[in-house]
Amino acid sequence: MSAAPKHDIFQAIADPTRRKILRLLADKKLPVTAISKHFPMSRTAVSKHLRILLESKLVSVEKAGREKLYKLQPEALLELKHWLSFFEQFWDNKISMLKHFVENEEAGNLNLIIPKSNEESKDS
Predict the structure, then answer these.
(1) Which terminus of the chain has fewer CB atoms gathered within 10 Å of its CB, N or C?
(2) Residue 70 contacts residue 59 (beta carbons within 8 Å)
(3) Whole-structure pTM value
(4) First-to-final CA distance of the chain
(5) pLDDT above 70 covers what percent of the chain?
(6) Which of 21, 92, 89 is CA-nearest to residue 51?
(7) What is the pLDDT of residue 105?
(8) Cα 103 from chain centroid?
(9) With contact defined as beta carbons under 8 Å apart, do 85 and 91 qualify?
(10) Alpha-carbon distance 56 to 77, whole Å?
(11) CA–CA dist 73, 64 (Å, integer)
């Protein structure tokens, strides 16, 4: 008998419902009943989303009396941050180009200068 497949952080955040759950848990610990009130789905469905978030270590759970309280584990998001940091170079380049365009437009010069590397990629 094989164990149920585990979900990684990228699978966990791929779903908009789970991303909203993470936002809700960013401020405070919440039981599944309080989380469920924010969604047009059953408590069982929300519990399934929480299970995936638990498997990916994005949330933790602790018992408080008869309730289970779910809490965001922000350190798990570091994996995402490290992965995304590679792509910042492309965003920084686009922001620089936009800044250059806006500054030239304000000066009355509407000529957009495209860096040589972008021209070469267009020819391919």
Answers:
(1) N
(2) yes
(3) 0.70
(4) 51
(5) 81
(6) 21
(7) 74
(8) 32
(9) no
(10) 10
(11) 18
